[in-house]
């Protein structure tokens, strides 16, 4: 005769996983689904409008950036605040245009440097769809003050679900690899209930680490206390560029600022490798010029080196070299690409897309497991005469 077991730690973990999963299922489904659909937004934009992102016929010489800036400002009736120059001869220049003080983000315009033609702007056929997905992912399309904490709390629950899920994945008694094997494969020839269970259990196990990475980085947008806490742990401020105190150029009366062409030469001198160069346009005579460069051959596509230089002399005022940073500083500076999957380009995006898709399925398969258990007929107690 078996002894009736009390309320064990494993039973507590199981109950926590079950009820927290039920409580957050709807929110997590929509957050994960919108994240899945948003992963390849840049690639979809390029596919829908290839003529905007790729120059078919290139000329013998490119126009000076100053000419492109002047023409773009005239046609858009705005002010260029930044120019991006690609190493690839078939890629257009990207000019960030602001149309007023309230337009903080500005609009990106793609310009052919050979014939000075504006090929288009950042708004494409799928822009509204992806903007909706972005709002869904961050705020569930609610007002930011309402949606942000809801998504944040659901993300915290997702962290708990991932950890408790791993605990439950391990069998009660581990007797070598054979006892772990059922949790590593999906039994395709079993009935649909067992397949659903395996989809939840096995796929959850394989994706757990990346799901936790997504969750831990995503919380930086939800809670200030979390962002500050993570900054303390990493030893470097997360989103440091926001509100960062920038150096100033030394104002010299009647002095003429260096041209964008000269700043690009300076960029190649300071950072002698091939890659995309981004140069900021100073808004006033006191502003420094920020030069950012992304190495073309780097596996980490999100890493960059940055110099702040005097707009009149080109003297270096501040430098930020990625290779010189400590591990914590590198992680803090790349929270966004780590969260979105941009960090290693297409390679990491494919992995993130698959993981996000699986994460979207977990609330569904989990709820089905719960419903199946509710429907399971209770065993009749044997009456001893």
UniProtKB/TrEMBL annotation:
Transferase in keyword set: no
Chain ranges passing through the membrane: 20-40, 150-171, 203-226, 350-371
Keywords: Membrane, Transmembrane, Transmembrane helix
Name of the protein in its database record: Sulfite reductase
